[in-house]
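Pilot study result, target chain (363 residues):
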Amino acid sequence: MSFRELRNISEILRSLGYNRLISMESFRTPNFDLVADILNWLVKRFDPNSNIPFQIGTEQERVTFLKFVAQTMYDKARIKLNMKKLYSADGYAVKELLKISSLLYNSMRKNQAEEGDRMEIEFSLASKISDLKATRQTATEITSIGASVFDLLGSEVELREARAKCVARPLDNEDIEANLRNTIRQMNDNIESTRYKLEHLGADEANLKSKIDKKKSDLERNLNRYKSLQGVRPAFMDEYDRIEIELQKQYRLYLEKFKNLEYLENELEQYNRSEQEKFEESQKALKKLRAKDGLEGGRGRRRRDDDDDEISDDPEEDEDELADDDIADEGDDLSGSEAELSPSDGEGVLDDDDDPSDNDNNF
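Predicted structure:
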């Protein structure tokens, strides 16, 4: 026990808010009630849900209380407490109390510092992204380590038996000496190889230096040759320039002919389209004329059928009327043919200068 430890425990408990005053003389003499109260308060402060039987009337109850406290702190914070020193309840128990109280005090100070820094520091996006990457990497590492630990724990049953056999087997001095000799021999070999490398280090360095000098001289020679070749004009460059000029002329001629060809093809396509439209119009007109002639012929036949129905029952009178009709029809046909053959109207006469192909086109 020291004065500094007593001062630290009193200041830390006062900072944590312990409800009783702790003086420098509190631990001069054994005081188990005070130590038990401090332990109970620290455990409640660390884990409010912990259920520790706070009964210290007898020695067995005190031992049980200390066991519960030690087991709880080991499970929650991995803090090992010496129950003998705590049971003595004197200055030696202060060191064990400082283990718990220092952890709480440091966490409180860190929390206050983080709250103060959070109000002052402005977080940047870059730091957040880096933290995110680090978190992802850590999560990946945790997953892989957990898988490897799981595999190792799966083989723990077999390894436990092998380990127990090895531990239970008596040690053989001859085997131990042989293993030590092998290890010593391997270390001596490594030392000899390292010494050999150190001795030949100067030769290797000189060899590398000569290689570097040779490469530098080759580089300088190649650079000089490159500069000399840059100033020399090749013999085929004149012919290359002439062919390039001729190629440009041929290309311009090709473009001109290509444009003319495209234009002529476009004109031919338009001409064929117009001729096709004219041909379709003439076909439509011809179909209309044929339909009109067929309609007039049908009307004439229906008219003749009606006249035949109205013929009287006297055969002689019918024959005389039919004869008269035939004579009239023949006279009409003759007059019509004379009218067609007469050149007075100028129709139906083909001149010598007319071309039959023109008539076909007009038709």
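One observation from the pilot: Residues 185-232 form one domain. A full batch analysis is planned for the follow-on phase.
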